[in-house]
């Protein structure tokens, strides 16, 4: 539902800007839809988790500080209550993450649910004062002229908190991500922070991460782009060919965005964006895409024909294989502690379910299709042998095809294996409370189990006690390779909100400029005494030191930003020359700026507020590196919430490694401590 009634009225913007801005509207957060209710519940849980984490951190600090036994006992009791409360809140958050039925297509009746990612929540950010101050200080311009642009940026960010679940929502998030690139270059210098605090909540733990680093904002927006693609994929109608194609593409794009996030933003201070977690999420999205491919192949029905069943067997075995890999990855450290338990169990259930279907199809091939005189023996032998890595001992593919008894025995062995896998899937589903409440999942598993039992009952049973054949594993193979689709940012056209400041290659936060100086060239001065070069803006060169302009303060290398009161930042050399000639014999007034030396800029302090968050993937890597450097040093004490330090240019690989002074050591011998922020250009991006 468009949030027309709640959006701030558009200011006096150009028509083109109004049209562009009108596209970027989020959904109404007050709408009583299933998805908005879940997001609202997630926001409430995040606040409760924040409160509990703060209480736990305070109690731990008191426990370390006190020596009174009575106080320690009381604090330990309080800690046990707080930890219990945190565990309950974490289970509630997991319940939101497994509320998959809310995101499924309403028209679906008999499809195993797919898992979407929930959007990361954030707090509001006010850019007004920091950006206005920077415009006045750095660019020496009237900051009041940029109030509309700053408000547009804040409106776009607010809309990105509730994007619509379609391509328009994806485009809006991508537009904000690209806009952040302009904002970063315009207003966030590498030598200091702007005082803008970004707060984002972990999607799985609910723990907030607060930084003054814009790269946290960019990484979180990327995560939400991937999450929105997963929600679009689960919403597709999987009962139609077009719906399944859209679902496959959406999950491939989700995997591509998450993979891009993993490769581009390293060592992010949030569990849900750690490389290990993103690796698991990418595998899960590709597995769901593979599942949709199998559904797409069998949508029109599966013919009970030899070669068709062979193809379907290998396709469904591939689905079971990828889900087995997902389940294995979910049970590895450090992901195991934070991945929702129900997700891991659902991956295990799907692995067993699709493995059972592969055995069922193989049994159908062997039990229902006897070799007829007109059949191609060589082709059937080749197809059957391709199903296995190796045949059971004493059996050959052609001999099995020709011998009715052996066919039946091997077919029944596959049916027994299918029944075992179905029963394991039902058992695991029954053990997980969250999955037990998903009715359609129970119905699909039960129906598949009954079908295998019925098929087995139709076979002759008097020789069962003589059959010792074990069903061999089936080789997975697919004709539809699933790969990630990288995000296509170039297809989203974005105009820099702060275009008026001038070309970004010149007017950026990295370069410092003098305030504009007015150069007045008197009437009848004759030749100007200088040449122009470069693009936009035009630059002074070959300046005659004896010309009137030089005597008025013009310098070699100055940039012309105004001629006769007309802004010239975006004008090229020819256009500026045209304006200079148009003045004629009248007095000429130009405004110029000079580039200042930025090499001696001072290092500034930086802070990361992590609210007592546990060790992240990045911190584990840092701890391992420290052990390699010096294993004799003692483990550093647990840090307080706020850690300060100076910039270290030699450690640009992580946002979590700021040097902090250690007692008794010199300035050059600093020890890396967790939960500190490295202020570098390449720390995250």
UniProtKB/TrEMBL annotation:
The keyword DNA-binding does not apply. It is found in: Cytoplasm. Residues 113-462 form the BRO1 domain. InterPro entries: BRO1_dom, BRO1_sf, HR1_rho-bd, HR1_rpt_sf, PDZ, PDZ_6, PDZ_sf, Rhophilin-2_HR1. Residues 28-102 form the REM-1 domain. The keyword Cell inner membrane does not apply. Keywords: Coiled coil, Cytoplasm. One of its GO terms (biological process) is negative regulation of stress fiber assembly. Gene3D superfamilies: 2.30.42.10, alix/aip1 like domains (1.25.40.280), HR1 repeat (1.10.287.160). Residues 518-585 form the PDZ domain. Pfam families: BRO1, HR1, PDZ_6. This is Rhophilin-2.
């Amino acid at each position: 539902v468009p949030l027309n009634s709640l959006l701030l009225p558009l200011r006096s913007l150009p028509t083109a800007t109004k049209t562009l801005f009108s596209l970027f509207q989020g959904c109404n957060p007050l709408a009583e839809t299933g998805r908005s209710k879940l997001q609202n519940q997630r926001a409430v849980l995040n606040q409760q988790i924040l409160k509990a984490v703060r209480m736990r951190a305070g109690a731990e600090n008191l426990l370390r500080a006190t020596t009174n036994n009575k106080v320690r006992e009381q604090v330990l009791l309080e800690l046990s209550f707080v930890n219990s409360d945190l565990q309950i809140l974490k289970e509630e958050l997991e319940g939101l993450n497994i509320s998959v039925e809310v995101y499924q297509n309403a028209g679906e009746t008999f499809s195993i649910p797919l898992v979407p990612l929930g959007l990361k929540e954030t707090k509001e950010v006010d850019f007004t004062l920091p950006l206005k101050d920077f415009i006045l200080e750095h660019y020496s311009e009237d900051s009041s002229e940029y109030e509309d642009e700053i408000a547009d940026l804040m409106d776009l960010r607010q809309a990105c908190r509730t994007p619509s679940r379609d391509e328009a929502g994806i485009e809006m998030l991508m537009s904000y991500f690209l806009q952040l690139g302009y904002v970063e270059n315009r207003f966030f210098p590498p030598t200091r922070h702007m005082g803008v605090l970004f707060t984002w909540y972990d999607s799985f733990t609910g723990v907030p991460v607060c930084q003054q680093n814009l790269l946290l904002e960019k990484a979180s927006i990327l995560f939400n782009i991937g999450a929105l693609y997963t929600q679009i994929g689960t919403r597709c109608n999987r009962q139609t060919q077009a719906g399944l194609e859209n679902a496959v593409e959406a999950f491939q794009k989700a995997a591509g965005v998450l993979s891009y996030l993993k490769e581009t933003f390293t060592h992010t201070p949030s569990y849900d964006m750690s490389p290990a977690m993103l690796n698991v999420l990418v595998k899960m999205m590709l597995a769901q895409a593979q599942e949709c491919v199998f559904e797409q192949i069998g949508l029109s029905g599966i013919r009970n024909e030899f070669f068709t069943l062979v193809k379907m067997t290998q396709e469904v075995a591939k689905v079971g294989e990828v889900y087995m890999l997902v389940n294995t990855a979910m049970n590895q450290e450090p992901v195991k502690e934070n991945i929702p338990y129900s997700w891991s169990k659902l991956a295990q259930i799907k692995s067993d379910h699709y493995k059972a279907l592969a055995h069922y199809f193989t049994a159908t091939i062997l039990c229902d299709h006897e070799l007829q005189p007109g059949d191609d023996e060589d082709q059937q032998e080749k197809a059957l042998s391709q199903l296995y890595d190796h045949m059971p001992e004493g059996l050959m593919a052609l001999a099995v095809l020709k011998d009715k008894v052996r066919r039946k025995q091997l077919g029944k062995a596959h049916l027994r294996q299918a029944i075992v896998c179905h029963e394991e899937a039902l058992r695991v589903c029954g053990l997980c409370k969250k999955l037990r409440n998903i009715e359609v999942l129970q119905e699909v598993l039960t129906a598949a189990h009954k079908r295998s039992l019925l098929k087995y009952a139709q076979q002759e049973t008097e020789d069962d006690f003589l059959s010792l054949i074990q069903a061999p594993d089936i080789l997975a193979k697919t004709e539809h390779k699933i790969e990630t689709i990288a995000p296509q940012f170039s297809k989203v056209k974005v105009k820099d909100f702060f275009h008026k400041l001038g070309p970004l290659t010149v007017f950026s936060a990295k370069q410092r400029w003098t305030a504009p100086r007015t150069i007045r060239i008197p009437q009848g001065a004759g030749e100007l005494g200088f040449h122009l070069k470069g693009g936009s803006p035009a630059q002074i060169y070959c300046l005659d030191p004896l010309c009137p302009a030089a005597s008025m303060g013009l310098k070699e290398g100055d940039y012309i930003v105004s001629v006769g009161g007309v802004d010239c930042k975006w004008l090229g050399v020819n256009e500026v020359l045209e304006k200079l000639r148009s003045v004629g014999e009248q007095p000429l007034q130009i405004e110029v700026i000079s580039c200042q030396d930025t090499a001696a800029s001072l290092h500034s302090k930086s802070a990361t507020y992590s609210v007592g968050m546990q060790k992240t993937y990045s911190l584990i890597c840092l701890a391992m590196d420290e052990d390699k450097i010096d294993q004799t040093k003692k483990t550093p004490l647990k840090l307080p919430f706020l850690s300060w330090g100076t910039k270290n240019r030699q450690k640009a690989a992580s946002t979590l490694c700021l040097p902090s002074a250690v007692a008794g050591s010199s300035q050059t011998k600093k020890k890396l401590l967790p939960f500190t922020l490295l202020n570098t250009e390449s720390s995250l991006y």
